[in-house]
């Protein structure tokens, strides 16, 4: 058995976060876990018959009644999506505590949670905006101190034509690109530890080859070893989160389309554009689910497996792929 000190909520929150860190979540995700856990634990302390500050709350204090009261106070000023996220975090936390033998059971089924609203897509606005963006970035900008259009175009192509998330782009290695001519693919370390393979068309492949060639010229052959990060900054160092966000915002400014980027979307607007155009051009829900790496499209939907051929056909139908091929002088 654990002593009273070991049963403090704060101590077990940190133990839980350490355990989750082995799954390699983003720092943003870990911080969201910590914030939800600490906030509600503090509210639980206030809901006790004899209120306690957060640092004095023990795991044993977290009865179903106390957790219901804490979540009721948490939910009052917040959106349903925030409450749903916090509920899921606490459900996972209690599952961890049960596995560790700290508590006999999980009280969260006794705590109500709102249905999570489906997120609304935030694609780039304007029918031809993606094509304008690609064309502007493909041109070497004279005002840039150290222009690298090949690298910038590679980033946009992977987001617009493969639908990759920011974290997925940063995790790519040179070896993530594979497959023979005509069947090229990118292996993605997806969200929640779900790997996936996304087909890439010839135009995207040519963009990536051009980028890697330009990187060899800049930094030498050793810079493109298979285990090297695929995306690097102008010094040859791995791109980081802030650097990638700045790069994409810079591309928007150079293309003059900042007013067509949904607020708060930034790079994610490119992924949403990919998904939206797939749907508009006839891809099925199953194909979109598979290509974007979602566990499901809605809570009631089961995961639907589709064949590699169907996935490739869906990507090939994407107008952005055809536009990129035309930009490079290939068959549109």
TrEMBL record:
Organism field: Micromonospora globbae
Domain Tyr recombinase: 119-316
Translocase as UniProt keyword: no
Lineage: superkingdom: Bacteria
Name the UniProt record assigns to this protein: Tyrosine-type recombinase/integrase
Core-binding (CB) domain mapped to chain residues: 7-98
Keyword annotations: DNA integration, DNA recombination, DNA-binding
Keyword match Membrane: no
